[in-house]
Amino acid sequence: MPKMPTPAELLAATPAFPAKGWMDVKSEIRPGNYCYPAKPDTLLGLGFKRAHAWAPEDQDWNLPANWEDIMYNALKERLDKHRSLKVFMDVCVRCGACADKCHFFLGTNDPKNMPVLRAELLRSVYRKDFTLAGRLLGKVAGARRLDAGIIKEWYSYFYQCSECRRCSLYCPYGIDTAELTVLVREMLLELGLASNWIMDPVSNCNRTGNHLGIQPHAMKEIVEFLCDDIETITGIRIDPPFNEKGHEILFITPSGDYFADPGIYTFMGYLMLFHELGLDYTLSTYASEGGNFGSFVSFDVAKKLNAKMYAEAERLGSKWILGGECGHMWRVVNQYMATYNGPTPPNLEQPVSPITGTVFKNAAATKMVHIAEFTADLIHHDKLNLRPERNNHIITTWHDSCNPARGMGLLEEPRAVLRAVCNNFVEMPEHTIREETFCCGSGSGLNTEEIMDIRMRGGFPRANALRYVADKHNVNWMACVCALDRAALPPLTEYWVPEVTVSGLHELVANALVMKGEIPRTMDMRQEDLPFPDPEPEEPETQEPEEIGTGAATEPKSEEDA
Amino acid sequence: MTIALVATLLILIVGWGGSMIGLQGVLGALPLAALAVFIVGFVWRVVYWAKSPVPFAIPTVGGQQRSLDWIKPSRLDAPWTTAAVVGRMALEVLTFRSLFRNTAAERTTINGVPRLTYYSSKWLWVFALLFHYSMLVIVVRHARFFLEPVPVCIQVIEFLDGVMQVGHPRFYLTDAFILAGLGFLFLRRLYTEKLRYISQPADWFALFLLICVAGSGICMRYVDKVDIAQAKVFIMGLFTFSSVSTEGLSPIFFIHLTFVSVLLAYFPFSKLMHMGGVFMSPTRNMKVNTREERHVNPWNPPKKFHTYAEYEDDFRDAMAEAGLPLEKQPEPATETGNGAGA
């Protein structure tokens, strides 16, 4: 990974527009601006026959001999299958409303990162092959013949789009670059070109059930470790069920939640919540991934991975599925899952909260509920004993993740939860939140180390809004409802707004949740001292909390030392 | 831009030159052919789009979804009924609602630190509306050349358009508005770096063509005045396919006619087809109830995935050792050591 310049240096080094027109500017492939290619074995294992060894910096990408035909047919096939593609190819008037809506453009000032030009990279080729004017007039009609340089350009720029759909909100015709990005990435896959950081997780997810390739027994072990931590914090032992049949609910969350910091604290929050409710649920090691990296590159691959959720719900005889906090997982679940899978397995029923009796009418077809909806409903019905004072040292803001916002409309549910568990909640400025939210800069499989420069630039608009509330309202926390955010935002805030901590929603829920029979809390989910610990109980039960208190004092220190 | 300008001038020369050398009859036939191309081309393009299915429901959600009863959903930005989708589309088509959202981002420096600020930017929305509605009124107004007697509603529109009651012939507001709208769109494309960089010959050409259509029309009314009664006789003749006399019609009339014809014929093959396309955009015209109602993909491929049985085959021994429930118990063979190591 190349060394990162300081934030000031990074922004100062923002180039002006090139003097030449964009068709004459060759795409530059240099270290730091491309994703490492997927390994041929990985692609072959997933059935992509044209997988081959290639290196982005090489002149020759070892494309198959008839690659031009392959691309022509690939585009034709997609035009025939997707009305969106045809319309998006034809109707753009280049009004430029999208131009300064893209976080990658705002961060890089690279004109090809304006959504309109990103689309033109494909549109120009479409005109040449599929329109009369393009065929006859060529460049005058905005058309150009596909060549190997354009393939490189596509690999560069369609992997600088995080499929956040912000441009599509402002486009007067709703042209959605995310749709184009997935389709171009699909086409590149037909040439055996893909990014390792996406395809490795896809392959893992396919075989072991989750992106990280955590095998069933290892997953169980990890979760048990997390339960040890819960016991340390709350004094309560939780023993979550795995792969068990006959439970009402199958719970599926992204694997980042039980593997990576700070997702694990949110995962612990889920388990504590379920335990407190006495929820009849099971985890699955087979369907142990809520996220769907396939959705970044191909509708078919997305479907292949998504199919496991229903297959497992059917095998286990669950009545409905509860989904954890994740971004693109919910784009797939909300907008594609029902279509991909057809009618749900017969054992699935319309989800009803066993605690409040609320019927989740909006999940009638998919039978899958978002945990923010589930918890917001609990809080609304006053079913949780919460002590938000435990979060009083936190002044939090809320990051709307792109997919739950623009792919779903999940805006108020998490806010309702956040307000209930945290006394200090400040919104970031308008035009940067809710449906207008900015991406973390690393979505759609770009969360990889080798493009740190692009990621930090892409995340600049998000960080900039965060900087505003950090300066003005002393915000020191940013909660979000997306696993990729929980992986991507910590390095982003570290770089731009180092005083801010990133967490999931249910980590804060877990802090505030008063569980039956728990010990007075002296530490938060990260086992750091609570500045506002629970008051000592009336009954002299001093032994236990004191012990925990000393444990808490040493724990963070040893972490820092390490 | 030069290419577009040259192309526009060529059209002007055809129109002007043609009428000078006595080809009024030929030029007069142009609109008929162009109209035919327009109608056939428009329908052909819409049919071309419609032939491809909409495999997935991909509305861009612009507000709160409908979920829990006590959370107020955004009816127009996350429409869950057909009526609400119609409402969203109507506002999109009639008021350019997405464009109304437009913001401008600007890099600034606050306390020495580079920052981004955003502010609402509605100029494009204002002038786009101004142009499109002026265009609409002008087109409707033109019906008086085609219809006899002129319907009352068109007379009303004409009256309102000239409500300022200035000049003779009476000055139409839309004539000024359309030029203002087009002028803004032109200047914006010329002077904004981003816009200039993304602009193609087709973008300039469409602007020049529309400016010339409007300009020649205005000339005909206020400068090089054309006998309207004569023009109407000519046009009515055209559309009833009877022989027409071009007597008393000056070149400017034929120049206008030529520009209009080119616009009509060019329309279906250009970005101007956004007029039809805006209705067919799946990010706007679909319901935001995708978990409630299943959207069917006509080419939905069969499901192919790594099944649980295959998964358990891969990990059975390790799963058994970890105490995870199994569909099939591992073989009680002597090789359990292998399984644990796998």
Give the termini distance of chain B in whole angstroms: 67 Å
Structural class of chain A: mainly alpha
Describe the main β-sheet of chain B briefly: 2 strands, antiparallel
Instruction: Indicate the percent of residues in helices of chain B.
Output: 55-70%
Q: Write down the CATH topology of the domain at 209-380 in chain A.
A: Glutathione S-transferase Yfyf (Class Pi), Chain A, domain 2
- The count of helical stretches of chain B stands at 14
Contiguous low-pLDDT stretches of chain A (5 residues minimum) are 544-562
Q: Judging by the overall fold, what is the CATH architecture of the largest domain in chain B? A: Up-down Bundle
| Second CATH tier, the architecture of the domain at 209-380 in chain A | Up-down Bundle
Succession of helices and strands of chain B = HHHHEEHHHHHHHHHH
What's the arrangement of strands in the largest beta sheet of chain A?
A: 2-1-3-4
Distance N to C terminus of chain A: 23 Å
Radius of gyration of chain B from the CA trace? Answer: 31 Å
Biggest sheet, spatial arrangement of strands of chain B: 1-2
- Beta content of chain A: under 5%
Percent range of helical residues of chain A: 40-55%
The name CATH uses for the topology of the largest domain in chain B is Fumarate Reductase Cytochrome B subunit
Number of self-contained structural domains of chain B: 2
Runs of chain B in which pLDDT lies below 50 for 5 or more consecutive residues are 335-342
